[in-house]
Amino acid sequence: MQNHLPVTAAARSRSLPLAQSQSFALPLLFTVFGVIMGSWAGRIPAMAERVHVSHSALSMVLLCGGLGAVLSYPISSRMMSSFGARKTMLFSGLALLAVLVAIGGAPTVPLLMMAVLGLGITASTFDVAVNSAATRREKQSGKSELAKLHGLGCAGGLAGATLGSLMAGLHIAPLTHFVMLAGPLALALYYGHASLDADDAGEVVEKKSFSLPRGPLLFLGALGFFGSMAEGSIADWSGVFLKEHFGASDGLAPLALSSFSVMTLLARLVGDKLKVRYGARSLVTSGSMLGAAGLFFAVLSPNAWFALFGFAVAGMGLALVFPFVFSAAGAQGPAALAGVASMAYSGSLMGPPVIGAIAQGMGMQIAIAYIGGLACLIAFVASRSRLLK
After folding, report:
1. Per-residue pLDDT tens over the stretch 38-97
2. Predicted local confidence at residue 180, as pLDDT
3. Can you spell out the DSSP letters for 154-190?
4. In degrees to the nearest 10, what's the CA dihedral of 126, 188, 182, 315?
5. Most buried residue, 30, 165, 207, 357, by most Cβ within 10 Å?
6. How far apart are CA 332 and CA 343, in angstroms?
7. Does residue 344 have a pLDDT over 70?
8. pTM > 0.90
9. How far is CA 174 from CA 43, 64, 103, 269, 355, in A?
10. Alpha helices of 51-173 — where are they, by DSSP H?
């Protein structure tokens, strides 16, 4: 017995740095993904101007991203089956960075559409892999972690969008910007992949080319679609609403997204603790109603400053939809997660052009009110979802 004690202590000592690196891997990977997607979103105006794309054509470009997300289902399922989550993250993440550079350098609208299609495929595949690894760790540890991890992704998105704004202010072209990002982010991806506590065994995934989630999973897919559609629409159109409806300055208008994103981040950082106490279904249902109230308040506000408060409330209310939906889907296995993620990610890319069409036909107030209606619909669907626990 005495001979075993020193060995046990030494083993614990050696395992400590490894455990620390493993606990750091998933937060790093979620943050990197947020930086990539925030960087892309922050440079959309510059890329549209470079290829002289009209508003209607830009809507078609964004729709290509949604189509790519839908087409990613068989790709992500096959990769998860063949390589497992860890290698799928590495391969799809590196491909995502390559696509980002291609988007920055696309000289024509057709080539930009093809590159954005690739963005939808690679981003959705990475999303499935990283969330699959996170939900597996939730099962093993018995602790809710998805809200905090998605909060870090939100923080990464804020950092990426802020960096994009800075690069635009310095008149640095999107291609140069994305090339500068690709190297450091590739190293971060590799470090996260290497540190992750997961084997490379393939996941057991149904061999289907594509199918929408069915039964109880359809509720999760609908929640993901509507939730990410609302988030993406607020990201692209909240500033436009302040500028067009209230005449906000170029400095004030972007604060709509900032207020929404900061409250989303803060809510996600405490979301896992709230889930243990109140349950995912009640949080998503009540939060979505709060988000709807915030959006309707913004629409009816007398000035831009009151509207900022409305968008902040909306961010707090809608923050937990996406992470809890992914957590519930991941608990049903990789195939369920891939199907729900495809619907959710396509919603985030299809939402902005839909809102743009409504704004052009009926005005920005109606467009923002439509997002509030989506939040009410999310609350209704969530209240009937058996898989949200």
Report:
1. 888 777 767 777 788 765 677 778 778 878 877 887 888 888 888 888 899 999 999 999
2. 94
3. HHHHHHHHHHHHHHHHTT--HHHHHHHHHHHHHHHHH
4. 60
5. 30
6. 16
7. yes
8. no
9. 7, 19, 8, 31, 25
10. 55-105, 109-141, 146-169
